[in-house]
What does this fold into?
Amino acid sequence: MKLTRRLFLGATTAMALASSAYAQDKGTIYYMVPTLLDEFQTTSVDAIEKFMGEVGYEVVTLNADNKTDLQQSQMADTILLDPEAIVIAPVDFNALVPAIEEARAAGIPVMIFDRQITETMIDFTSVAGTIEIGHVAAGEIKRLLTEKNGSVTGTVLQVLGDPGDPYTLDIQKGFEELMAGEDVEIITHPAMQWEASNAGTIVADELLATPDIDLIFVHAAHLSVAAVASLEAAGKAPGDVMVVSSNGAPVGLDLIRQGWQQVEVEQPLFAQAAALAMFADKIVAGEEIEPGTYDVLGLESTVTIEDWGPNIKIPGAAITPENVDDPTFWGNLQAPDDPITPVE
It folds into this structure.
């Protein structure tokens, strides 16, 4: 029977050694999760443990509680344990570069989940197609504005996440690329530190300054909750101001069911985690990753060889009232049963 353990704050080397005794046949992989305070991160832990287990690896998860220094310390301890590999979702991208280089110098391959670290060599990176998420959002927003106004015209309030995060900047880039040339005014503000309260304040202030907003585009579903609260406080009913979000969290799907939100563009969490497991054997063995197209849980995904190493980009999809209950979307919290087949 597979035994999985999660170690949290102050994890000691002795505890980790005890856990490794229960490893699967292929050994232990450590997953460095930045925080467990949101459903994307907790679901990523379950998905990575599940899929890695299916291909023969025990996963030990270390929670950094959103603290850079703690994640650095966890990396130092883990390197001493000499695991088969380390998977990192970084708290701070640049701060972890020295630890990544130390791990790889010790012969421990490093995989990055959900974000790109481009300042040093990485053995494998699995990310969503964030620019493509922006493209999908733009297509859906054009459709919604046409349905409301008869053409692609109107006013859109775009609420970014933290401007230091390339995830939100890429979505903005993709969105604005496809909106260029349209008769649409786009008002853009960042919700610093991805704080929902900041998003709520932005929406409340803009509703006063620009009463004729047609649509609000936020870059994460938890920001949608704050946006909707501000709409309600302003006396708006569901649908008076349309809402589009991007990441696929359960709260976004619930807002679609309630009529407040029209579209959620999913970040393909399950496929991102599955891709790590598909390539784990090759990465652990130090084998070359071939560029090309791969099927990851039914999604056509692309591996490229970048300056920082092999990178797989996985597309998202638009969630609407018509398909909101589809169990393949991670926001419905049902991990797919599709078996994971290692890439040979």
Observations:
- Residues 1-23 have pLDDT under 50 and may be disordered.
- The CA atoms of residues 195 and 223 lie 8 Å apart.
